[in-house]
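Most newcomers find our protein records easier to grasp once they have seen one. A learned vocabulary of local backbone shapes supplies the integers on the structure line. Here is such a record, shown just as it appears in the course material:
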Amino acid sequence: MCVTSQADTSEQDSAGPAFGKAYMWFMGLTGAVFAVIAVAIPMVILASSFTEGPRGAEAASSTDSPTSPGEAVAVAAGCVSCHTADGAESVGPTWLGLAGIERELEGGASATVDSAYLTKSIVDPAAQLAAGYDDLMPKTYADDLTDEEIADLVEYIESLG
């Protein structure tokens, strides 16, 4: 059995709490620094992914920096949400290689994809619906886009062949 004197206990009490408070303060500070670092590093990484922009195939997309007035209209009006300029499948027909072809329409008819067809497809998309696609295109482009914007968009689509 260990017996301590009153003097020994008072020395421990006076040294113990002081050491304990300093230790707790140090551990609290260390924890706070760790917490800041643990939050700051992922935030910097996340923020840099937004400022650097997309990588890989997404970076090569023409929608990142429109090169023509028609392409700018396609991006601004949201056309590129459903149509592609690289031949990839999407909700709507790709624009790559579209101009000048004979297009099969719903109901069995066909039409040549020229300026008149493209313009009509923009302002009244259900009038000549491409076979195999649903009638999902907004019907408001005739009101939302100016004649010049529609002409620019048609010219852009035709430039893709």
